[in-house]
Structures are given as C-alpha cells and as structure tokens.
Amino acid sequence: MNLTLKIWRQKDANSEGKMVDYPISGIEGDMSFLEMLDVLNEQLINKGEEPVVFDHDCREGICGSCSLQINGEPHGPDRLVTTCQLHMRMFNDGDTIFIEPFRAKAFPVIKDLMVDRSAFDRIQQAGGYVSVNTSGNTIDANAIPIEKENADDAFAAATCIGCGACVAACKNASAMLFTSAKVSQYALLPQGQVEATDRVLAMVKQMDDEGFGNCTNTGACEIECPKGISLENIARMNREYLSASLKG
C-alpha cells in the first residue's frame, strides 16, 4: 500500500506542535500499525531526520503503552484492540491517515505522539490496592468463598490496562471508566471491603485533582476501550462513592 501519514510533531509540552505529512510506500496488510511506524522511522533515520516518538512496550495488547489517536479514534478503526494489535489491512491503498497523541489536559505531551499518563498511576496509588498482613500470619486467598458472578465481574474490571483510550474518547476527558474499573476490582471482593470507604473517596478525589472531566454519559469510553470495560463499573463506583460519603 501507498499511504500518506499526517503525524503530529511536537518537541515538548511547552512547544507548539503541528501536523507533518509523510508519504510511505510498500506497506503490507499484515503489518501492525506500530510496525508501519517502525518502517517510517527507519526511513527517516536513513535520511538523517528525527524519528517520530511514540509509546510502546509489549506489543501484545497487554501493557497499555501504545496510545495513538488514529483518524480521530483512540487505537484506530478496529474494536477491542490496542494500537499495537491494529493491522494495516484495516486501511486501503492511497489512504490518508491522521495520527495524533491522546488529547487531555491531564495527559500532557512529552514529545510527538507520546503523552505523560502518570496521572493514572497517582489515582491508583491513592487507593487502588489492598493492605495485606505479611507478618507470617497470612491468609490463603482461596480460603474465602466468593460468588462466581462477583469473581467474574471483578476479573472483568481488572482487565483494564490503563491505556487512556477512555479519556481520549470522552469529550470531557473523563477518567471515570478507568477509576471505576480500579474501584470495582476490589469493591466486588471481600478482601477489598476493609478499605472500601477510604479507597473510593481517595481515588475519586485524586481523579478530580488531576484535572480529568466528569462523565458525559455518552458511552464513548466503553466503545473505544480495547478491553471492553463496562459502563456498569461507573454506576458501581457512584454507588460506592455515595455510600462512603454518607458514612464519612
């Protein structure tokens, strides 16, 4: 395929960015989107030009590092895949592809297509964990019976990889889906009940402090989420938050 790539280039968070055109040829349909960018960067390096900076790690749809806005959609036109799982067969010969970083106040651009998503780490650190007694008197995790439905829902919430597609898809740049997945992961399990009140209050406060917007109720986050995290988690977090607020 012969393609025209319109890529956002930006030196750093304080610099003004712009779209730059890059023609590219010889792209095969079985290539992943990141492999296509690898080909482009190899060509740029061979010409003595600066390669395009983009985030990636495992390239297996697990780590959540690859975060690209492709033709206006987080992770591109396919569904339930990350950018590294998107294949070039989703595009046609002669296409023009717009490639931008995830756009959000809480995700400042580091360079080009790479953004700083450490805001998610701080939300997680505010309460997305359980305290465990490691003094030698630990309890086997399998010793507490858990209803299968609750276990399944907890596992489903835990599949969130923190890529930020939900934020990029939301017109308010809301992190409600991410935060609610991390809250639900523990709210559904008995091990998470000890700190349940403090957890939801702390994580929601940190989410607001980071500058994320509120939920728009449009459902774009669930549609664009590569792991299909359900909007039901947002409803659960709202219930948890209301209950915790009344207790407080």
TrEMBL record:
Q: What is this protein called?
A: Succinate dehydrogenase / fumarate reductase iron-sulfur subunit
Q: Which residues form the 4Fe-4S ferredoxin-type domain?
A: 151-181
Which coenzymes or cofactors are required?
[2Fe-2S] cluster; [3Fe-4S] cluster
> Domain of life, per the record?
Bacteria
InterPro entries per UniProt? 2Fe-2S_ferredoxin-like_sf, 2Fe2S_fd_BS, 4Fe4S_Fe-S-bd, Beta-grasp_dom_sf, Helical_ferredxn, SDH/FRD_Iron-Sulfur, Succ_DH/fum_Rdtase_N
Source organism of this protein record: Aquimarina brevivitae
* GO molecular function term, any single one: 2 iron, 2 sulfur cluster binding
Q: Which family, according to UniProt?
A: Belongs to the succinate dehydrogenase/fumarate reductase iron-sulfur protein family.
NCBIfam families registered for this protein in UniProt: PRK07570.1 (NF005746)
BP terms from Gene Ontology: aerobic respiration; respiratory electron transport chain
